[in-house]
Amino acid sequence: MKTQVRLNLYERGIVDALVQNFGYTSQGARKLVVEYVDVIRKLGGYDTCYDHAERLVQATTNNYKPEEWLKRINVLAKEAVQDKGILHLEGRLHVHVR
Q: Is the CB of residue 4 less than 8 Å from the CB of residue 37?
């Protein structure tokens, strides 16, 4: 038995955007958001619901699975942590600060 996912207000807004702008039924839109809910939550609520809805449509059109997307997000996050910045520019910033 699969547990029921409770969508927050933002996620329900994405469902509405899928219905209003991309021709999904309410049930189909909810199913899509639930399928990608971990990705949506990982990306955060910075973009508009429409933007997230558009990304989900593109992901399904291109057969890009949520697991692949999460894996890519995690790779990018690890790279960002390891990034040392632009050393020759950052070195100059520290010279002028007392």
A: no
